[in-house]
Amino acid sequence: MLTLRGRAALAAGSTARWASRVTGRGAGAMIGGLVAMTLDRSILGQLGQGRRSVVVTGTNGKSTTTRMTAAALATLGPVASNSEGANMDAGLVAALAGARDATLAALEVDEMHVPHVSDAVSPSVIVLLNLSRDQLDRVGEINHIERTLRGGLARHPDAVIVANCDDVLMTSAAYDSPNVVWVAAGGSWAGDSVSCPRSGEIIERNGRDWYSTGSDFKRPSPQWWFDDTHIYGPDGLVLPMTLALPGAVNRGNATQAVAAAVALGADPAAAVAAVSGVDEVAGRYRTVQIGTHTARILLAKNPAGWQEALSMVDKHGAGVVISVNGQVPDGEDLSWLWDVRFEHFDDTVVVAAGERGTDLAVRLGYAGVEHSLVHDTVAAIDSCPPGHVEVIANYTAFLQLNRRIS
């Protein structure tokens, strides 16, 4: 039940959102949420009351997993979700205010905001995907984020934690929680978890298993996992799973989304069918016609994400365009480029693009990758031979390209 002040705050936010749209300044979701929060600081908690919510967080895969979770939850009823990826408080307020009658919610939440958002909305399920370096000049040291998440989860012992047991840091965050569903969602990037976040000792790895040499902290046995064709769950559950989205990383995202929806009562087969139909997430993965080329657009924002995106690239097409900016939303510190393995490009036309294309070109040069430099991303695509081009872009480069081709 909204208070009188809360209703007034939402009305003012709605007016601000309308004004933003009609003046062409944007979609208005963020400004609407900000206005409502300024007038009533408790508005997020009020909007979260009476809903069964799933909070999804992690460095990579939040938007995709949230979209899949919303699809799976929709088999149970109407769902509120911040499907455009505005994952801080104002975006959450806008998403919940826009679906006041929905009794379910799938909320993508920035990992640094999870504790206070969880305090406000009391989620039924919290999905923990992965933790790795991201936006070094904003996010900072990831072991601190892990400890903050761990403390936030401790305040919500009744929540079901759906955690990726292949990720050392997220496992540590969830390890002490009383109600954890462990999912083997994958985690090929291990560069940020060479030491135990609890003891500081070395993490030893043996295939998919891992353990800390300084404590009894080790990889839990998963209740959910996947392979190339099926998803596996509790009590001998086995279901075929064919996704519209590419890559093993998205099979892991889908498995966590299904586990979250089943925790809220969804039928597993219906949930798998729902996540299998997700074929685009806010412009990611879509293929578009640009001049004489078809172009598939992938988003990557940090070393772990770049490693996964590069594994999806078709290296035998007309070319690969890699576009990198260094604006505030990207993180202005691009030193992480040196942690990405670009060396695997052979006999592929590679074009470095974006505002920080020169930085990228230096990195490609040291990787021994033959390339050209064309700062404008559309012009970079046009410079490739006719045919299909794979485009990988970081955050603002991705947004700029989508605005130009929409």
Automatic annotation (TrEMBL):
The active site is at residue 333. Its EC number is 6.3.5.13. It catalyses: beta-D-GlcNAc-(1->4)-Mur2Ac(oyl-L-Ala-gamma-D-Glu-L-Lys-D-Ala-D-Ala)-di-trans,octa-cis-undecaprenyl diphosphate + ATP = beta-D-GlcNAc-(1->4)-Mur2Ac(oyl-L-Ala-gamma-D-O-P-Glu-L-Lys-D-Ala-D-Ala)-di-trans,octa-cis-undecaprenyl diphosphate + ADP; beta-D-GlcNAc-(1->4)-Mur2Ac(oyl-L-Ala-gamma-D-O-P-Glu-L-Lys-D-Ala-D-Ala)-di-trans,octa-cis-undecaprenyl diphosphate + NH4(+) = beta-D-GlcNAc-(1->4)-Mur2Ac(oyl-L-Ala-D-isoglutaminyl-L-Lys-D-Ala-D-Ala)-di-trans,octa-cis-undecaprenyl diphosphate + phosphate + H(+); beta-D-GlcNAc-(1->4)-Mur2Ac(oyl-L-Ala-gamma-D-Glu-L-Lys-D-Ala-D-Ala)-di-trans,octa-cis-undecaprenyl diphosphate + L-glutamine + ATP + H2O = beta-D-GlcNAc-(1->4)-Mur2Ac(oyl-L-Ala-D-isoglutaminyl-L-Lys-D-Ala-D-Ala)-di-trans,octa-cis-undecaprenyl diphosphate + L-glutamate + ADP + phosphate + H(+). The keyword Metal-binding applies. SUPFAM superfamilies: MurD-like peptide ligases, catalytic domain. One of its GO terms (biological process) is regulation of cell shape. Keywords: ATP-binding, Cell shape, Cell wall biogenesis/degradation, Ligase, Metal-binding, Nucleotide-binding, Peptidoglycan synthesis. Pathway: Cell wall biogenesis; peptidoglycan biosynthesis. Residues 299-398 form the Lipid II isoglutaminyl synthase (glutamine-hydrolyzing) subunit MurT C-terminal domain. It comes from the Bacteria. Pfam families: Mur_ligase_M, MurT_C. It is an enzyme of class 6 (ligase). The keyword NAD does not apply. One of its GO terms (molecular function) is carbon-nitrogen ligase activity on lipid II. Residues 56-181 form the Mur ligase central domain. The lipid II isoglutaminyl synthase complex catalyzes the formation of alpha-D-isoglutamine in the cell wall lipid II stem peptide. The MurT subunit catalyzes the ATP-dependent amidation of D-glutamate residue of lipid II, converting it to an isoglutamine residue. Belongs to the MurCDEF family. MurT subfamily. Forms a heterodimer with GatD. This is Lipid II isoglutaminyl synthase (glutamine-hydrolyzing) subunit MurT. It comes from Mycolicibacterium septicum DSM 44393.
